[in-house]
């Protein structure tokens, strides 16, 4: 899809590819605590935690879920919920038109953890009530073009009753697209089958998502274009009924990419051919002008016009985009076609700059309106009206029990039953609850001024609650409508709500056929940390359909109020049979450092009556909460080594939120044997004058207890600690000895003749050799354009850069003109130029040469995260300097070097034999 996505492929690439792999995966089941012997358990070692998948056509053909060690973590176990429409909240809402969201749901593709992580700022979308299908948009020519959704976003989409599809993205040639990729994709085998299409179906079934969005923007020939249509028809004929194929209005039958901005004779064959459905939906490109013609064409083809989605691009400008939801209305005030939003993740990205508070504000503006009330019709057509203005809300609440903790899937800490059980920020969309259908429908009686927000400061279960804050007047009610529903309950059923800060909370139910809602009083029970549970009999709703659920709230005193909603349950708690968990498996590990490992675990269960699984670790005799998932595979991130082994327990949780301890299982995990520490040292400078201060610092293993330094001739000569500050009274060359010590022993490193100290009257001038007139850069792996050539890395200007997005390991050579003395280097990476620090170079080597042919490596940097990195070296003489980016960025291969300073002296003879 054109627009800003194309920019992403260049130096601002944000959608990237995941390489499958890691290690051999012979799975070894951990034994229970009771039966485990002392024999060694071999656990496969992986370079990284499980990551979301992204492939090219050839790697798709070789993909197999059984042989992909990350596949179990990318699979969703949450079935697609049934949902129904709520009542119209304003007169403009359509009950027929639909909404398609094409969202970049993950910050990156390559490197995206399969099940969340420690970053709170994620696209944890919650306004599912307005979305009918979600496209997990991703892909780029450098990292992968066939991208299924990560399992966590499938979990939450399905919990809300929303189908989710993956992306097949063939980019334009100008941004790396290759016609051979399209040709490979539509190639038939000897039996007439389309192997790629079969693989797409295999992957969607294995991962549990609902189909594919095909975005073909590479120019091809007519034969390939015809084969693409045949391939889509093949998909249609073989896909399960619950899956869908969505086509983007881009290519026409000649094979040319020619966006029509309409359904017409040029592209109708990719939508409908005679009586044969080719695609289930079509996303009409942003160039549309007269949508009425597309509507008429759909009717002529005997298709629902609402299978067409008029595209509005909100990626760059969000609610300030030229087109508004009202732009697709007909003369009758109803949408002519359905609505297709491209990149509504603007709320977090361009519009929010990953600020979570701004994200929630933007979500309200984009999806609801500036009034924050779906009933409002105040916004003019010249303004962004909000999606709620024209599209009726839907709800998955169609059966009991229904339970929500108002957990949005991220937070600053994790709570269980009102008590914080885990510190630290997290994201885990797999366990996001169904959030209120209405954001927000609140009626305050005179004197009350409560407003609702998502709140991370306190929670009952998960990481968040709903906070109603503002002034309240004694005995005046505030009504909040929470959910649309379609429920039938018996006289014995109950409901319960858990709150904090409210004196009286009544349950308000709208019943089908009743003009006035029923208000039910309940019985209160005090819980931990100020939380209160109020339980209600649903006898008054017996035999009738509950169509909406809300609360009446009162306080006894006048004054400021902060009232939290922590949990809502509909349905009496009953004893249920839940499947046991067995055969807890440690299927892999990633060593973060010598005291920290991330552990892959799996377990067996039939999943009957199970909502989720909680994982605990035994620490000092107490079971400590570590995580929760809806999957039967999970990654325990950053587990600290306390002893040589750790005990873990997995406990199933039923649909009432109750842990079933008797159905859990336990196993013992062996940490890597502790080794002697690793150590590397660096100096603030290796070329200084007499009396000038130098700082030495050591990079050591986390287990290191101390570092001992010795520099003979320095002041002081010895020191302990990770840093040593010293100076010299005499000129000369000095060696450095450093020893790291831990419980397993010690490791010594010696750098001979590492520091050079000179008298101030020698005339030595230390400078940036890169900007000397004799220095040039004419050799390298490549660059994106003339304005981002290698030479811009050597101009001393942080407003220019060298950028190369076409090489696996970008490199460049600086020619100093003549042999000079080099003492070190400074590199200014993406963050130093104002770009994301995640794009900083992670691994690089620097080598020097006298003749440009024979090289000796002087720097090997690994694990860099700094915007501005410094590397001092023992003095060397050389004319040529080569920089090789072994890992150009955290999740990709694009070089972004804003400046490369080669620090030294414009002379030789300083280095003595």
Please explain how this structure is put together.
The chain is mainly beta and 913 residues long. The protein has five domains: 57-395, Glycosidases (TIM Barrel), CATH 3.20.20.80; 402-570, Galactose-binding domain-like (Jelly Rolls); 586-670, Sandwich (Immunoglobulin-like), CATH 2.60.40.10; 679-758, Immunoglobulins (Immunoglobulin-like); 766-905, Galactose-binding domain-like (Jelly Rolls, Sandwich), CATH 2.60.120. It contains nine helices and 52 strands. The strands form twelve sheets. It has an eight-stranded parallel beta barrel with strand order 2-3-5-6-7-10-11-12, surrounded by four helices. Strands 14, 18, 19, 21, 24, 25 and 27 form a seven-stranded antiparallel beta sheet that branches. The longest helix is centred in the first third of the chain and has 17 residues, at 222-238. The protein is globular, with a radius of gyration of 31 Å. It starts with a helix and ends in an 8-residue tail after the last strand.
